[in-house]
Design brief:
Blueprint lengths: L10 H5 L8 H4 L5 H10 L2 E9 L5 H10 L5 E4 L1 H4 L4 H10 L3 E4 L14 H14 L9 E2 L15 H9 L3 E3 L14 H10 L3 E7 L9 H11 L2 E2 L8 E4 L2 E2 L13 H5 L1
Parallel strand pairs: 1-2, 1-6, 1-7, 2-3, 4-5
Antiparallel strand pairs: 5-8, 8-9
Helix pairs in contact: 7-8, 9-10
The structure holds zinc ion.
InterPro entries: Glyco_hydro/deAcase_b/a-brl, NODB_dom, Polysacc_deacetylase_ArnD
GO molecular function, one term: hydrolase activity, acting on carbon-nitrogen (but not peptide) bonds
Protein name: Chitooligosaccharide deacetylase
């Protein structure tokens, strides 16, 4: 199969928030345009995501905290952990609570760009999707393994990208990695700073033993004090593919991406 067409490098930065018209409540308010603009500048959105679970003994507690705060997010699950003891039951619990169950690869071991053969990509993506199928969102949310939350060409291969497009996966990245697993004392403060620094933060947390659990109540209090709006959706700026089409797909995230020379030849 031919590789997918890729948008030219850097365009995604120009498209950031181009379609954003502000929260519905503000759109329907009889405010002047100037006042609306001022309000929109103040209004921060936050999308919470929980990666690398499900983890018995941890995910349930994260769910309780979210329920107490009336919040819903997305759980990007590792296929092998879903199949481990207790995994399937936890996945159903996450789903029943109204969170989105999403795909975070089968093994979470070697980034797709670091092993660019098609067989590996298809297995890592489809086998995990099969294991979460009973609860997965129809949009087939997929997040590649980032290897410490890094954004770069290791995230995808050309074969993986073609497969995500062909399979109509919604490929989701992130723009906030506060580091809950490596800095238990500092990650909450770092997260608040990262939220302040952008209009719509897509935050990566982890429902693993060494993850966000202990600091999560504090984080949610801090973000509520900041007056953020929590949402379950994702801004286009972190969506690489959706429904068979590139959104913010960028060759900078594809290890063996065609160069401009390859494309024009
Ligand atoms: Zn991960």
């Amino acid at each position: 199969m031919a590789p997918p067409d890729l948008p030219s490098f850097g365009k995604k930065y120009l498209r950031l928030f181009a379609d954003y018209q502000g929260p519905t409540t503000l759109r329907s308010c009889p405010l002047t345009l100037a006042a609306q603009r001022e309000e929109n500048i103040e209004m921060k959105r936050v999308t919470l995501t929980f990666d690398n679970g499900p983890t018995p003994g941890v995910t349930e507690a994260v769910l309780s905290i979210l329920e107490r705060n009336g919040l819903r997010g997305t759980f990007f699950m590792i296929g092998e952990k879903v199949s481990a003891p207790g995994g399937v039951a936890l996945m159903h619990e996450v789903h029943r609570a109204g969170h989105w169950v999403a795909n975070h690869t089968l093994t979470h071991s070697v980034a797709l760009g670091d092993r660019p053969d098609a067989g590996y990509a298809v297995r890592e993506i489809d086998e995990a999707q099969w294991r979460i199928a009973a609860c997965a969102t129809p949009a087939k949310l997929f997040r590649p393994y980032g290897n410490d939350g890094l954004l770069g060409p290791h995230l995808l291969s050309r074969a993986a990208t073609a497969h995500l497009l062909r399979g109509r996966y919604t490929t989701i990245l992130w723009n906030s990695v506060p580091g809950d697993w490596r800095d238990p004392d500092g990650w909450v403060e770092r997260c608040v700073s990262q939220v302040r620094a952008q209009d719509w933060a897509v935050v990566v947390l982890h429902d693993i033993e060494t993850g966000c659990l202990a600091g999560l109540p504090d984080l949610l209090r801090r973000l509520a004090d900041e007056g953020v709006t929590f949402t379950q959706d994702f801004p286009d700026s972190v969506v690489l593919t959706r429904d068979g089409h590139p959104v913010s797909l960028d060759p900078a995230f594809i290890a063996d991406a065609p160069t401009s020379h390859d494309i024009t030849r």
